[in-house]
Prior knowledge:
The complex is a heterodimer of chains A (about 110) and B (about 110). With about 110 residues, chain A is mostly beta strands.
Amino acid sequence: KAGVTQTPRYLIKTRGQQVTLSCSPISGHRSVSWYQQTPGQGLQFLFEYFSETQRNKGNFPGRFSGRQFSNSRSEMNVSTLELGDSALYLCASSLGGYGNTIYFGEGSWLTVV
Amino acid sequence: QKEVEQDPGPLSVPEGAIVSLNCTYSNSAFQYFMWYRQYSRKGPELLMYTYSSGNKEDGRFTAQVDKSSKYISLFIRDSQPSDSATYLCAMSDQAAGNKLTFGGGTRVLVKP
Lengths: 113, 112
């Protein structure tokens, strides 16, 4: 059974640009969450999507957005990139019910220069 | 103060020793408790999942949850060099759905 797949794995962007990251959840999983991981702040929750609707949101500025498609695949977008957005962005999937186990992908490494 | 506290380490142990990791938390609503292992430049891998208080064992791993003390632990028996990684505790409550709150992670080094 394929795991959570994230693309691209590595990317470098310039300050002020925007970036789109993609996530394909485990087959049958309907919930997709996004996290940002940095050395200083650790793993922080960005948002969760379930059945194409944002179900939960963390404390990040509006520059961070996401969406989910009917096949449960998800994308997140960061606009007007700042140097501080350099991080590992992790996607996680679960069946969708509360308390279901949550599995992570390998992440997308974003460097903003 | 963070909702979930975890000693950053590093924790260095000889091969074959028991690794003892723990987290404390402040939110009494947390009901689901997880431990993840993360190797360098990789995504977190789920090791253990526990609901509410109690113990759970899976192979060399034992997870304990003490909700009265707001304290969770992970024990790794017969540690191997391949167990060298960062271990993250995570927890959630029903109101927050699938939003996980993580500890900062403990770096573990198992020396041959």
